[in-house]
Amino acid sequence: MGYDERLYPQIEQVASMDNTDESLIAAHCQGDKTAFGEIVRRYADNMLGYLTRMSGDREEAQDLFQETFKRVHEKAHTFAGGAFKNWLFAIATNVAIDGLRRRKRLRLVSLNRKVDCADSDEEFGTVVAPDNRCNPYDQAIKAEQAEKVRQAIELLPARQRATLILAYYQQLSYGQIAEALGCSIGTVRTQMFRALRKLADRLPDIWDPAEREPSEGVE
């Protein structure tokens, strides 16, 4: 990997920058063997959760996780500044979509197992159903609804699914999603509208897009 001399001033500031993502990737490009490990540690849970939701399979997500950070390592010298998180999710999204294309069809998450995503304890079921922890019947209904929502998300086209997951689970703004997916904010809005409409069509008794659409901050 070639080293860009323009990054040297950034390296000199690492100690005073509290090891930001951007300073760590710059340090990695200059041969710091600990910097890349710190980047992986910071994003491991969120990235594995994102890739699990994109692929619908925890084991496959592990492979996608390895491929994502392999590409980050190989492409680190191409990082041109800006928000590292957006750049990272752009790579992860491309890896996930490549994986979906290789499978040629989307697989449904098994009804007999819960997707284990470490980036959040909150499932879509907690959004679309009230919390009735003391009522076993209501808990069963809630679990069934959550499973239906997960399956409906699995059926979304890859770009719509990525847009939805980045907005809801990763809490990225529309501007950040646009950067991650390499498209305009208008395209993000269109993908989100289509994704929410499909969920509403497939889950008329559960999903109301007017109530569920996330904030579209564009910072």
Give your account of this protein's structure.
The protein is an all-alpha fold. The protein has two domains: 1-109, RNA polymerase sigma factor, region 2, helix turn helix motif (Rna Polymerase Sigma Factor, Chain: A), CATH 1.10.1740; 120-219, Arc Repressor Mutant, subunit A. It is 63% helix and 0% strand. The protein contains eleven helices and no strands. It has helices at residues 8-12, 21-29, 35-55, 58-75, 84-103, 124-128, 136-154, 158-168, 174-181, 185-202, 209-212. The chain starts with 7 loop residues before the first helix and ends in a 7-residue tail after the last helix.
For the CA atoms, what is the radius of gyration? 19 Å
> What percentage of amino acids are in beta strands?
under 5%
Q: Give the low-confidence spans.
A: 7-17, 105-134
Q: If helices are DSSP runs of H or I spanning 4 or more residues, what is the number of helices? A: 11
Strand tally, please?
0
CATH architectural name of the largest domain: Orthogonal Bundle
Largest sheet: number of strands, sense, barrel closure:
none
- Per CATH, the superfamily of the largest domain is RNA polymerase sigma factor, region 2, helix turn helix motif
Kindly report the average pLDDT value. Answer: 76
CATH fold annotation of the largest domain: Rna Polymerase Sigma Factor, Chain: A
CATH class of the largest domain: Mainly Alpha
From the helix content, strand content and strand pairing, which structural class follows?
A: mainly alpha
End-to-end Cα distance, whole Å, is 32 Å
Helix-strand pattern: HHHHHHHHHHH
Shape: globular
Helix content: 55-70%
Domain module tally: 2
